[in-house]
């Protein structure tokens, strides 16, 4: 089966979702991940489909990714959305991030930047660095929100601090359009945002995330 022509969004981290410490252990998860990494998508698909039907969020997220990319199956954005939503509804941050991209790109759903922003924000509040960086991109370009270089810098700074190596380059790039006072303000907003557990992350008087 063919792979999606879209760029893989998690190139800087392991694509397949592993169970978080909060999740109950998943039976035979290591074997299915080994099969996936070896290119045996059919075996991984069968295992994750069974686990996903039992409600394991990490397996649901992985299954969604397999359908999104067309690994071992016909590419099917609708099926991908179904499994991402199932995992996201359980609080799985990576699935929430994938949903954000599906809405941002209009993959299987009408393009909706506000919905993309919502899902990226939910994942960002769980310390998901890539989603935090995506919020920076949205503020930098003005997708779904007014263009705001201070908030873009803030999210790039946070994402860089917790593990997205590309975020630092994006932060440097946006600084080229900012004054020293704006950069200082962005750094202070990043400090406040992180200390609040990613909930106080907007400008004073601003209603958007």
Automatic annotation (TrEMBL):
List, alphabetically, the SUPFAM superfamilies matched.
Answer: HCP-like
Q: Which domain of life is it from?
A: Bacteria
| Protein name, entry field | Tetratricopeptide repeat protein
What SMART domains does its record include?
A: SEL1 (SM00671)
């Amino acid at each position: 089966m063919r792979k999606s022509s879209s760029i893989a969004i998690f190139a800087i981290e392991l694509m397949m979702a592993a169970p978080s410490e909060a999740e109950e252990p998943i039976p035979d998860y290591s074997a299915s991940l080994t099969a996936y990494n070896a290119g045996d998508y059919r075996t991984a698909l069968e295992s994750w489909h069974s686990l996903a039907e039992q409600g394991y969020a990490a397996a649901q997220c992985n299954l969604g990714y397999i359908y999104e990319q067309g690994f071992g199956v016909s590419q099917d954005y609708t099926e991908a959305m179904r499994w991402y939503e199932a995992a996201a509804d359980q609080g799985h941050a990576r699935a929430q991030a994938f949903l954000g991209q599906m809405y941002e790109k209009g993959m299987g759903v009408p393009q909706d930047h506000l919905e993309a922003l919502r899902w990226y924000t939910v994942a960002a509040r769980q310390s998901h660095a890539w989603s935090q960086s995506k919020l920076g991109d949205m503020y930098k370009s003005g997708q779904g929100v007014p263009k705001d270089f201070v908030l873009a810098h803030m999210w790039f700074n946070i994402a860089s601090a917790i593990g997205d190596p590309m975020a630092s380059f994006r932060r440097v790039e946006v600084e080229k359009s900012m004054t020293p006072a704006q950069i200082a303000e962005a750094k202070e907003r990043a400090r406040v945002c992180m200390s609040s557990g990613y909930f106080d992350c907007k400008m004073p008087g601003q209603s958007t995330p």
